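User: I'm putting together notes for a lab meeting next week and I want to include a structural view of one of the chains we've been expressing. I don't have a solved structure, so I'd like a prediction I can at least talk through. The sequence is below, exactly as it appears in our construct file.
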Amino acid sequence: MTAVEQDNRPRRSALYLPASNAKAIAKARTLPCDMVVLDLEDAVAPENKEEARAAAVAAVAEGGFGDREVAIRANGIDTEWGAADLAAIAASQADAVLVPKVNGPADVARYHDALAGAAPGMRLWTMIETCESVCNLPAIAAMAKTTRLSLWIIGTNDLAKEMRAQLTPCRTPFLPFLSMAAAAARAHGLSILDGVCNEFRDLAMFEAEARQGLMFGFDGKSLIHPAQIEPCNTVFSPSAADLAWAKAVIDAFALQENQGKGAIRVEGKMTELLHLEQARRLLEVARLIGKNG
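Assistant: Thanks for the context. Below is the predicted structure for the 293-residue chain, given as structure tokens.
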């Protein structure tokens, strides 16, 4: 995968699976999600942690996930399982390690150091799910320049618990954080995924929440049930109208009379070079979605 493809690769849907559930992992190899997160943390009981760790590493080694990115979510570095999780994941063939409850730059540095022996391509993904983390968003994001950090996932459930806030369908208490997290991520070249929607039986509610995340600029959303994959992929894929606009913009800027211009009129609207860049990215994302199936 080229650098451009890596930057634009679809990250619409990230499905969490308990690493201790062999049937769920086998099914994940057939599902149309872009990303699979084998969970050693919240989804696994304490007495099953070591078994789940071994199962996650074995599943990644077995392969069969196609073009899906596969991450393993470790227990926190200060827990009794954290060090062993990180050592096992660093030696695995996972694409990334997802780590919980990062509060600031020092935490990112500790996780980065723990992955010193990992393959160069292994990436560090972090949860943004504490009050302290949302107060340190720019500083945490800036660690992408010097560490393996490449992606954030918003953890609204843990954030709601710590804030003692109500997690309602409109997510009003969290809107400022969602906006600031997206801005900080973009400022430092991070991908960013929205948090889970707990109402996995109510797909209309899920779609509304996903569209809210799209509005804020997220690349995709983390999921807790396979039924959420299709609506998630639909929401975070360029629409037919989006692609028609992108093609019109690219074609218009390619005209001889528009060469060297910074702003032109396309379909009755003022269009600048920044829109040309957006149009090219939309078409590249659509191409990669088609390539990945």
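A couple of points you could mention at the meeting. Residues 273-292 form the longest helix (20 residues). Strands lie at 13-18, 35-39, 69-73, 96-99, 123-128, 149-154, 191-194, 220-223, 263-266, 269-272.

User: Perfect, that's what I needed.
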